[in-house]
Specification:
The complex is a heterodimer of chains A (about 140) and B (about 375). By secondary structure, chain A is α+β, with helices and mostly antiparallel strands. Chain A has 2 domains: about 70 residues, 2-Layer Sandwich (Alpha-Beta Plaits); about 60 residues, Alpha-Beta Plaits, CATH 3.30.70. Helices cover about 20% and strands about 35% of the residues of chain A. The chains are: A alpha+beta (about 140), B alpha+beta (about 375). The interface between A and B is medium-sized, with 21 and 34 residues.
């Protein structure tokens, strides 16, 4: 079996927000975790956008563990695809990208897209006057 | 006595390959070290450029006459309406004209596709006359199959432009890009210290007949642009602090490149055309040397609320601040984003610089200068209508 990368939004009820759940995912289920966005405040509900990388069976068990701890896990199948070859580096997209995935190099004024930071808010899709961003709806697994 | 140079002296140097040509960014940086008097001695030409969406653009096309001939009175190009009131087989296709069945596709796309060698469906209707008996034609054209294709843009190269933000609670989709609610972003256009009309704000060298870089080809300034306004407030460095002067330009579409003319669609606004414009400024005297030395921290512009009726003014900022990534509006830090490509503008300024250095582009003295003391009229709503 090959390792895969999958994205999940985890929603924590207040009682779960204090637990070291991500530690358990790493330690017990051998899952590499990349936190893309976090809103966790102790004692209150929170949410995490995670990229999980491991064998599919490990990710499945890890998610089951989280759900047993009252964490709502939503698989993110969407990804933003950027056709950078046609980009004119105008900058229209960077103002709407609060995840910091789209940035302008302020020396050479070239646009940079870092997909790992993208939270798929989709605001760049209508913001690009060249229509270069597309939502990929396929439940795609990235082979690590 | 201060040095003065003539166009002929500068062109002679260009022909000999000895002209010193710098970009407007290079001169702005150099001016921190040396005086305008020294700049006149050392530098002959400064190249300026911009690459932004310029809605007031379009193309004159002459299709050639079919047999039997037709007086085209209604014309569609890939479903996009072109002007049917220009003789038999001439038309003007506006960049912002849209296909009624697909508002994301318009005149700008046709212009880009023609340049890229694509074939376009032409459908036209006429009432049929003794000399033009045909009533309908449906055919395909390419840039090579038609007689003339002349880019003619009534308003390009705005001298400065406003910063757009949105104080309302709703997202606003504008020609200045997507403006998030609650002033979460602010968008600006123009290339600041590289922008053509900010480097010659009194338009001493840019006038009717000025040879320019347009869309990858050689073009010309033919008139002052529409909405030409010289009455806007100027700051202590002599540049207007909001959108003011404009240029009408012309060039041969057949020589242009889609690298420098690109169709755009702004969500819930419409189609527009990104135009690459480059203008050389001859350093004739100390005054021009001083003008081209202007820096981003000296060029101010006005911040406007594009979300509210009447677009109230929220403040003023500089291009140095805008290019830093954030500005302060009413005490709040707001992220900034450009909507015009500085990278492309730099590319154009460098291309023009190279052409002049290689003796392939000579400068022209304007045949006539632009009017002074112009201001804008409002359109009076005499009959009412839907608002």
């Amino acid at each position: 079996m090959k390792e895969v990368t999958r994205r999940y939004i985890l929603r924590f009820p207040p009682q779960s927000a204090d637990k070291a759940l991500s530690y358990r995912l790493i330690k017990d289920y051998d899952i590499k975790i990349n936190i893309l966005k976090a809103e966790v405040r102790p004692g209150k509900s929170g949410s995490l956008l995670l990229e999980l990388e491991s064998l599919p069976a490990n990710i499945k068990k890890g998610i089951e563990y989280l759900e047993a701890n009252n964490v709502i896990c939503e698989r993110l199948g969407r990804k933003i695809r950027f056709n950078d070859k046609k980009c004119i580096n105008c900058g229209n997209c960077i103002g709407v990208c609060f995840a910091g995935a789209l940035t302008m190099d302020r020396k050479n004024w070239e646009l940079h897209f870092e997909p790992e930071k993208c939270v798929v808010c989709e605001l760049c899709v209508p913001a690009c006057p060249m229509n270069l961003f597309q939502i990929n709806f396929h439940d795609e697994e990235v082979v690590a | 006595m201060s040095i003065k140079k003539s166009y002929e002296e500068i062109n002679e140097k260009i022909r000999k390959g000895t002209a010193v040509v710098l970009t407007a960014e290079e001169i702005s940086s150099m001016a921190r070290e040396i005086s305008p008097a020294e700049i006149v001695k050392k530098v002959d030409v400064v190249t300026t450029a911009t690459f932004g969406a310029m809605c007031s653009s379009g193309v004159i096309l002459n299709f050639g006459h079919p047999t039997p001939p037709i007086r085209m009175e209604r014309i569609l190009l890939n479903g996009v309406p072109a002007h049917g009131g220009l003789a038999a087989v001439d038309t003007y296709l506006g960049a912002t004209a849209e296909n009624p069945d697909n508002c994301r596709y318009g005149g700008a796309h046709i212009i880009q596709e023609l340049i890229e060698g694509k074939s376009i469906e032409l459908e036209a209707w006429g009432k049929g006359t003794d000399c033009y008996p045909r009533k309908h034609i449906k055919t395909r054209i390419t840039l090579n199959s038609i007689n003339e294709a002349t880019l003619l843009n009534p308003r390009n190269g705005y001298q400065n432009y406003n910063v757009a933000t949105n104080t309302t609670g709703k997202i606003k989709y504008t020609y200045m890009g997507t403006l998030l609610p609650g002033m979460k972003n602010a968008n600006y256009s123009t290339s600041g210290e590289l922008s053509p009309l900010l480097n010659d704000p009194e338009m001493r060298t840019i006038g009717i007949g000025t040879r320019i870089f347009l869309g990858g080809a050689t073009g010309y300034v033919i008139w002052h642009g529409t909405q030409f306004n010289t009455s806007k407030e100027k700051n202590e460095f002599g540049v207007p602090v909001s959108n003011s002067a404009t240029l009408a330009v012309i060039g041969n579409l057949k020589e242009m490149s889609s690298e420098f003319l690109r169709a755009a669609y702004y969500e819930k606004y419409g189609v527009s055309l990104f135009v690459g414009l480059g203008i050389p400024i001859p350093i004739l005297d100390e005054d021009l040397a001083h003008r081209v030395s202007i820096r981003n921290d000296q060029i101010e512009t006005t911040i406007m609320d594009y979300g509210s009726p009447g677009m109230p003014v929220l403040g003023r900022t500089t291009y140095a601040e805008l290019q830093s990534g954030s500005i302060i509006i009413n005490g709040k830090e707001v992220r900034t984003a450009p909507v015009a490509s500085l990278k492309k503008a730099r590319q154009i300024a460098a291309l023009l610089q190279k052409k002049i250095r290689e003796g392939k582009f000579e400068l022209t003295c304007p045949v006539a200068l632009f009017p002074k003391n112009t201001s804008l009229k409002k359109l009076i709503d005499t009959e009412g209508g839907e608002k």
